Structures are given as C-alpha cells and as structure tokens.
Amino acid sequence: MRARLLRFLPPTVLAAAIVCVATLSGCGHIPFIGKSSDESAAACPGAAVLKPLSQTATFTGPGNGMRPTDVVYYGILSEVDAKCVTNGDTVHASLDVVIAAERGPATKGDSVDLTYFLAVVGPGENILSKKSYGVRVEVPHDAKRGGMNDHIEADIPLGGQAAGALQIVAGFQQTPQTIDFYQHFRGR
Q1: How many domains are there within the chain?
Q2: Exposure pattern of 146-160 as b/e (b: 16+ CB <10 Å)?
C-alpha cells in the first residue's frame, strides 16, 4: 500500500525526507546489549529519526504571529531505539522515543502537547504503516528544557520480507503553520 500523506509536505521537506530514508535504507543496525550483531540485524528493522521532521514548533494560536518571537515551545525528537523479537512472520518491536521540549519566547505554562509518528517503510520507500502518538512533555518551572521517553510496543507484519529490508522512521507530525514557519525561518 503506497501512502499518500507525504503529498501534503512542501517539496523541499519531502525531498529531504526521501533522501534520509534512502540513505538510511543502506545503513546497518545498532547492536543491542546481550545480542550479537547478526542476531540484531535479522530480528529488527533499522530505526531512525527523519532529520527534516526532527523539530517542530508550537504557537500561541491560529491567526497569531508565526515568527520566532511567537514560538511557545520547540519540540525536539532526538532518538528512537528499537529492540525486537521475531515470531513467525511478525516482528514485535519495543521502541523508546526520546522527546524534548524547549521554552520559546512566548511560553505560557509548564507543559506542551506534541504529536509524532512512527512509520514502517519498505522496499522502494513505500510507507507500509504509520501511526501518530500524542505526548505531553513537562518542563519544570525553573528550567528551559524538559524531556521524556515514550515507550511503544508494536507488532510489525513482515509480509514475507526480511526484517532488515524494513525501516522504522520517526518524525513530528507537522501542522501547515509549522511547515510555513520552517520554510521562512531556520528554527531555533
């Protein structure tokens, strides 16, 4: 099944995401403690954060300014780690996603709600599945940043493919306002 959700991304962001996925498709894996590297490669798809979608920004509300001074919080998706077990034609993945939030100039409150996605990408860069996750990141009142680890358990059907032929990619689900912001400003 070919996903059509990427058609809403601006061409520059889409091109950068495709380059990241294409580059990652040739990468190996990160060995995990307690497993040999051959065992890890066979049991788990590669997991990575899509660099063009690793940051996001939230603003005071629709219709308000979209300049750097109007940012309430920046979101940073810094890491996704996967550990897997293969059971027949399915991989059970235990994923840990590290998410941080940084106060912006227009910050009000001590937390921010962010939405990120995890997608399974197959050969030919086809998106086989995608699911969004909402998280609330708390930022201590006297701190500039706060962070969290979101733990996800997911079953990935292999459809007759080797686990190493798939990639798990993560990124922030961007709003049209955020896409426009990053087209005009380079972020934080």
Answers
A1: 1
A2: beeebebebebebee
Complete edge-to-edge strand list for the sheet that includes strand 167-172: 46-49, 167-172, 111-121, 127-138
| Residue 122 belongs to domain spanning | 5-184
The rounded distance, in Å, linking the Cα atoms of 165 and 63 is 44
What's residue 151's pLDDT?
A: 97
pLDDT tens for each residue of 114-131? 999 999 999 888 898 999
Question: Which token pair is 112?
Answer: 């921010």
Quick one: which H or E segment has residue 111?
Answer: strand 111-121
CA distances from 138 to 68, 111, 149, 182, 185 (A): 21, 4, 12, 24, 26
Phi-psi region of 18 (alpha: psi -120 to 50; beta: other; left: phi over 0): alpha
Instruction: Give me the sign of the Cα torsion angle 174, 163, 78, 16.
Output: negative
Do 9 and 117 touch, CB atoms closer than 8 A? Answer: no
> Residue 85 has what pLDDT?
92
**Phi and psi torsions of 109, nearest 5°:** 95, 170
Q: Give the predicted TM-score (pTM) of the model.
A: 0.73
Residues 6 or more apart in contact with residue 164 via CB below 8 angstroms? 29, 41, 42, 45, 46
